[in-house]
Amino acid sequence: MDKAQQLEKKYHFQVYNRLPVTLSHGKGALLWDTEGNEYLDAFGGLAVNNLGHCHPRIVEAIKEQSEKLLHASNFFYNEPQSLLAEKLSKVSGLDRVFFCNSGVEAMEGCVKLARKWGKKNGKSGNIITLSEGFHGRSVTTIAMGMPSYREGFDPMPTGFDHVPFNDFKALQKTATKDTIAIVFETIQGSGGVNVIDAEFMEKTRKLCDELNILMILDEVQCGVGRSGKFYAYQHFDVLPDIVATAKALAGGIPIGAIMAKEEVASALGFGDHGTTFGGNPFATHVANAALDAIEEENIVEQAAEKGVFMMELLKKNLAGNPSVKDIRGLGLMIGVELNRPARPVVDKMFEHKVLGNAAHGTVVRFLPPLVITREQIERVVEVLVLSLNQTE
Known about the structure:
The protein has about 400 residues and is α/β, with parallel strands linked by helices.
């Protein structure tokens, strides 16, 4: 146990079940620890490192802005923030943007915006969420998500109904004209990499239109190119009313955002919402560089092509494997569901210097940097097969 690990054990809240490694530096899809060991990153910092580690455009943007202006209050304009708002509006198809610091802040803001919009439209009903969802770790967002995250934190905030994932009939029975919003992840991450059904998405959009209900999509994990579209809802012929985004938006620098249609965003007036750090010139300048790199290097297209390659490779190499129940995902957000716990498999992969993640107990989740090479993908799949065999 090195010094960092000793200090963590003594001083840090013991809330992370960490792998026994102290990371030092990274490049592309590779990471190195303090002892010089090299790892292939198929985890991507929980879908943050879409551009890989230390992408030159991100590094340059950090250096450039750090010498100019790190922070300025939102009582003043700053150019990087305004430029990023324009970029996100154009790429999302939505009209207005609010910046914050993380995915959970974005989701909290979505709830506030929806409730304020609901009041202005004479609604006093609940917000509906889908089972096995994960929207963050604040008290409000755990009330929206999986029951396991709520244990021990009662009393929970009220105002939320839950219906099964992809079950439109259950949703239709629950929704009324008084319902404020329907909120869900386009692709569930912590829930086990579950992709929303196209028919469910289309029928839900129609239901929202009929009952004047807001459709709010959580794209915190599956957005910013990961699915093979910039936002995963762009795989479907729908436009949501509000979208939450974060994680990969600034290449590793903390940032989040809420995007909304004009008629929804206008429900918030001066003083109704705000943030100290959100949208500061440093984070937004880096995010602008990240979005430019994604466009210029065709990262979204790479995610689509590499996702198909990885999915086909997984299906080919895991065909007939008695431990595998399902392989699913979209782009480079892929889950391999097992009929046994996934963590031992992930631990064994770590021994072979490949970093993965266990989600929802039995799913090996892959969120590699979108710049990962085909040869590196082949190595990830090879190690997964080996680890499955070694943990039977």
